[in-house]
């Protein structure tokens, strides 16, 4: 039997590139697709010499085609950091809606199984904690984050409709804040923001009073959860994230300790609709997939800091988004 064939959209991005690595390791034929709007080709350049890797530079919000058979699709193309999706709101809405529709159509025509990357943002600013999959969320559709949150909610709805109406094999992962090497230092997310500031000798910018919480998952754990979900037979949404919850104030202290920076923290305005708390209930992932995160924040942060420190100085100094 030949290699299984998988299409990964968003391949040049942070999660997409780690997924490409994982499926190459599993001896799949991997087709990576990306239009490089927020990604970086350097994340996957090491795969170019491989005979079981192809790259397609393509915007998935327009008609998508790949030659040959296809067993699986992972739809990960989408801006993911608030700074990015506020800068390109229409593209964000399009890739979550039209892009997802195109990939569902491709999956149907190729008889492939498709997994779409959803997000904890479907819970919005949650009124319950931790968030389990049966919580319907608290999203402001017309607020600045609505372009991302509602695109992802639509993505889930159309994916379920293809499952029930066309009997397509679908999977939905609700990803909670994930970090690790290959994040963009200037993508505005809190971890690269703090580490970048520490490396440049700037004060760390805490938005609001810093009492809001997040729960950070190391990328290898996230990829393992996604892999297991794809291989499972469960079509409903599953949370994948690390339930170890922390306030942004505590997180800043951890980064100060990790980097040894002598800088202090400064407070800036909290962005509109910034969720106050976020922590995944991972009971479902544990029961269905036998999955739980293994990498502690201390361990994961060390690896990630080493990665950022090893970047060329001009990249560390480049602050424009
Ligand atoms: P990223 O910005 O690093 O990667 C996204 C990739 O998608 C980029 O390479 C970008 O160029 C590509 N892309 C965007 N629009 C495209 C289009 N129209 N056509 C083709 N390619 C396009 O972000 P990430 O953190 O790797 O996120 C990947 C996916 O995971 C996204 O769907 C995101 O919503 C989801 N997610 C990520 C997190 C997280 O913590 N990293 C949390 C929740 C959900
Ligand atoms: N944040 C911060 N300082 C920064 C960047 C972000 O205090 O320089 C806060 C942000 O307001 C949010 C949390 O850190 O409460 C996580 O933000 P991020 O953009 O990483 O992801 P989100 O979970 O909000 O999508």
Overview of this protein structure:
By secondary structure, the protein is of the alpha/beta class. It has a domain at 5-179 and 218-240: NAD(P)-binding Rossmann-like Domain (Rossmann fold, 3-Layer(aba) Sandwich). The chain contains 10 helices and 13 strands. It has helices at residues 14-25, 82-87, 89-110, 146-166, 190-200, 219-231, 248-259, 283-289, 297-309, 313-317, and strands spanning 5-9, 29-34, 53-57, 72-75, 113-119, 170-175, 178-179, 204-207, 213-215, 217-218, 237-240, 245-247, 265-268. Strands 3-2-1-4-5-6-11 form a 7-stranded parallel beta sheet, sandwiched between helices. A two-stranded parallel sheet has the order 7-10. Helix 1 (14-25) crosses helix 6 and helix 3 runs parallel beside helix 4 (146-166). The protein is globular, with a radius of gyration of 19 Å. It starts with a strand and ends with a helix. The model has no long low-confidence stretch (mean pLDDT 97). The structure holds nicotinamide-adenine-dinucleotide and uridine-5'-diphosphate. Its EC number is 4.1.1.35. Keywords: Decarboxylase, Glycoprotein, Golgi apparatus, Lyase, Membrane, NAD, Signal-anchor, Transmembrane, Transmembrane helix. This is UDP-glucuronate decarboxylase. Belongs to the NAD(P)-dependent epimerase/dehydratase family. UDP-glucuronic acid decarboxylase subfamily.
């Amino acid at each position: 039997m030949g290699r299984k064939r998988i299409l990964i959209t968003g391949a040049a991005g942070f999660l997409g590139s780690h997924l490409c690595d994982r499926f190459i390791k599993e001896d799949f034929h991997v087709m990576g697709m990306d239009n490089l709007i927020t990604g970086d080709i350097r994340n996957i350049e090491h795969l170019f010499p491989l005979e079981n890797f192809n790259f397609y530079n393509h915007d998935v919000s327009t008609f998508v085609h790949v030659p040959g058979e296809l067993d699986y699709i992972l739809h990960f193309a989408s801006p993911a950091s608030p700074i990015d999706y506020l800068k390109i709101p229409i593209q964000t809405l399009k890739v979550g809606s039209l892009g997802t529709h195109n990939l569902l159509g491709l999956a149907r025509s190729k008889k492939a199984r498709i997994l779409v990357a959803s997000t904890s943002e479907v819970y919005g600013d949650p009124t319950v904690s931790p968030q389990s999959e049966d919580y319907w969320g608290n999203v402001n559709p017309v607020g600045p984050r609505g372009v991302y949150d509602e695109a992802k909610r639509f993505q889930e709805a159309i994916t379920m409709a293809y499952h029930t109406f066309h009997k397509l094999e679908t999977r939905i992962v609700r990803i909670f804040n994930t970090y690790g090497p290959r994040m963009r230092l200037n993508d505005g997310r809190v971890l690269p923001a703090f580490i970048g500031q520490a490396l440049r000798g700037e004060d760390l910018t805490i938005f609001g009073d810093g009492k809001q919480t997040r729960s950070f998952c190391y990328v290898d754990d996230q990829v393992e959860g996604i892999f297991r979900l794809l291989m499972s037979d469960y079509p409903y949404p599953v949370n994948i994230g690390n339930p170890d919850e922390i306030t942004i104030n505590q997180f800043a202290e951890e980064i100060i300790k990790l980097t040894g920076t002598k800088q202090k923290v400064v407070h800036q305005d909290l962005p509109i609709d910034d969720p106050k708390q976020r922590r995944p209930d991972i009971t479902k992932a544990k029961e269905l997939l036998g999955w739980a995160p293994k990498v502690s924040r201390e361990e994961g942060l060390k690896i990630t800091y080493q990665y950022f420190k090893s970047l060329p100085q001009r990249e560390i100094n480049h602050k424009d988004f």
